[in-house]
């Protein structure tokens, strides 16, 4: 029963109706107690689906249809929640309840003595003027925030995020996700990376990205592009190690017709394709010496010359380069030009390996799982053992390996649960069980400590909600909802 509603005893015959597997079920029950948002019914014999209809016959108003959900069953009957319906139905329902209100001097909501029956209750502040026609609207208005709060308290962080996303994107059509919002991470290392991305993105500086394979270098390059003034221009990515050395120059700089055997027509290279935007040169450590010289020339004068061409042309691009090799060592050993290294190295972002990102591992795994599950409209979760195995695994292939393992787990899961074996991580789980980690790893809020995480984030950000929300990688409205949900006040946070 709704805690905020006036509840009366009644004896209404009602039909409960639902459809399962194309079959219509009807059952007659009796409503014993009724409020605007709930009822207690007796005589229910079947298992109900999550949502069903109940059709009480209200004396004087006839049959009304209400949408309902089962809250709990007991020996006395079943408690159901009634959802707000159209105004006419609500008025009929309220008319029935009002007619059965026993005269009392106590507030029917909270029991506080009240003899005026005018205005609001001194204690719970709810509107008491039942006799007025406007009561229903005033009641709905007055109780809206409290109803919302009751519901919010039952939701977890992910639900709240989903609802806010839905409202923003589907109802308000706000495209509020920033391009790096799919970039998951709240570990110290990743927060530093995000801060650097935001700082350097709007500039025209060349950026060098360092990090093991699969740590997110390409994603970083895309974020740099999206957060720059070049975002409307093209983003062109070239994996220099994937193109044979003999073809790389023509691929990057283009060629004129007849420049070499097989050059039947003039072709633009990737530099020209990226004109006005960003060129991402992945595996830059693998380009041959001749191309290193050509790239250096470009960085100095911004001119390119097609293979077999006689003139040069100006190109307006920003270069973001990446490598998982130790360029400094390659430079010392003579495999990479020092002048090019220093040109590219004017701003460097180092992506930490996944094994050093603490609880980000689990956060990323959940992010990928959510994506796969949403694409196939399935509900699937990790078992506790899987979560532990994800924490323990060393992840030599970093985020790409994690994504692949979660994809495998998603395909192999049975009964809606991914066990370590589904991801081929059973050994990591067994070693975790044998040597439990004393260090629970820093990271995002777990259910039991979520309040503490929210308080900590607020403290660390001088109570600036937007910044604390950013630190926890949640939206600002979600942060406000959490502050309210946990009743956090500035004084508690100290
Ligand atoms: N922090 C992250 N949040 C969400 N997805 C990520 C993150 N980091 C990486 N990914 C995903 O992991 C995969 C590998 O990332 P990416 O290709 O950017 O890595 P890389 O360092 O460029 O790899 P390589 O060196 O092998 O080219 C991609 O699917 C990418 O979207």
Q: How many individual β-strands?
A: 16
What's the story with the biggest beta sheet? Answer: 6 strands, antiparallel, barrel
* Helix content class: 25-40%
The separation of the N and C termini measures: 38 Å
> What form results from the Cα inertia axes?
elongated
Q: Please give the domain count.
A: 3
CATH class of the largest domain: Alpha Beta
Strand order of the largest sheet: 1-2-3-7-6-4
Enumerate the spans where pLDDT stays under 50 for 5 or more consecutive residues: 433-448
Radius of gyration over alpha carbons?
Answer: 32 Å
**Bound small-molecule species:** adenosine-5'-triphosphate
The name of the CATH superfamily of the largest domain reads: P-loop containing nucleotide triphosphate hydrolases
Query: What CATH architecture label of the largest domain applies?
Result: 3-Layer(aba) Sandwich
What number is the mean pLDDT? 83
Category by helix and strand content: alpha/beta
SS field, number of helical segments: 17
**Strand proportion:** 15-25%
CATH fold naming of the largest domain: Rossmann fold
Provide a compact summary of the structure.
By secondary structure, the chain is an alpha/beta fold. It has helices spanning 87-99, 135-154, 157-171, 188-200, 217-226, 245-253, 270-273, 289-301, 327-333, 338-344, 360-376, 384-392, 398-412, 426-434, 450-460, 465-472, 476-485; strands at 8-20, 23-34, 38-42, 51-58, 62-63, 66-74, 77-82, 207-210, 235-239, 278-282, 303-304, 313-314, 318-323, 348-350, 381-382, 417-418.
